[in-house]
Write a structure and sequence with these properties.
Order of helices and strands: HEHEHHHHHHHHHHHHHEHEHEHEHE
CATH topology: Rossmann fold
Strand content: 5-15%
Distance between the termini: 25 Å
Largest sheet: 7 strands, mixed
Mean pLDDT: 93
CATH superfamily: Vaccinia Virus protein VP39
Shape: globular
CATH class: Alpha Beta
Structural class: alpha/beta
Helix content: 40-55%
Number of helices: 19
CATH architecture: 3-Layer(aba) Sandwich
Amino acid sequence: MTTEIASRADFSRLRYAQCWEDADILLEGLDVQPGDTCLTVASAGDNSLSLLTRDPERVVAVDLSPAQLAALELRVAGYRALSHAELLELMGSRRSGRRDVLYSRCRLLLSPDARRFWDGHSADIANGIGAGGKFERYLSIFRRWVLPLVHPRARATQLLRTACPEERVRFYDEEWDTPPWRALFRGFFSQRVLGWLGRDPSFFRYAKGSVAEHLLRRVRYALTALDPGVNPYLHWILAGTHGATLPHALRPENFELIRDRLDRLEWHRAPIEDLLESRALPVVDRMNLSNVFEYIAPDRFRALIERLASAARTGARLMYWNMIVPRNGAEAAPDRVRVLGALSQDLFARDKVFFYSALRVEEVR
């Protein structure tokens, strides 16, 4: 079965150099148990690696993009060949002047395809592999050239401090949320600019409403209701590194756990539909589906939900995000899955990646 988005989007380049879904929320929502089999969208690989910390028997990562799988493969090599501190340097989470040396140690562990990809991206290695995606370059343009037009660096740094909620609201409303800020944000994060510089125009085929207005509301939530001081994703957007806070897969307490379980991780270049039809996965317990449902038509979404449910045990969980395209598996296939509504709402309220409009945890009937 040919997946719809494969015929419309370019998957030859690295679109995401990091996973932009909160792994802490993902792990809590999926509630992976020892011995589980997990199906996960690879993306850049961070969240596939985080799943290993919950002691599953098998983690199967799938992606249409060879570039995304090369990103996952280099991370796996980094866990095998480097120390934790060195991995942070290679990623770009910490400053470094020796990333070429660190890459050379990882290079020997890469497949020929991944080696060719990264050998052709030496500048991305030098800058930190977490900065090399199209989306991360878009954020870098915003941080370095666009944001300073309305807010100086010192004021942006103030956003990353830990403060009480009342102070965060006061700072945002009185010092940050100016008319120039809103005008600039609406322009740079419009659907046209985001599709051109950050994502792919085809990803917005089924979009509803204003992308910029949605994001502007979510930014306010992230900077006031949530604590920016402990948000590694926000820290990267505003500072270009992770600073004192790290995403789940890169935290020191998880490094050895992930390294010891790398043999349980496998990856495939294929549509999810094809992987399921190949019967490479006889049964699935947990599914991390990122926001892939936004890219397909409603009838194909319904068919895929039904196919995923058929491949899963009763009680299996699937988790996914909506950004600007509403997708609801419990409505599309109510006889196959049910939504865990209270859990979904609680996790969404705490989600440190604030781009999305909804988070859904569903259970196979």
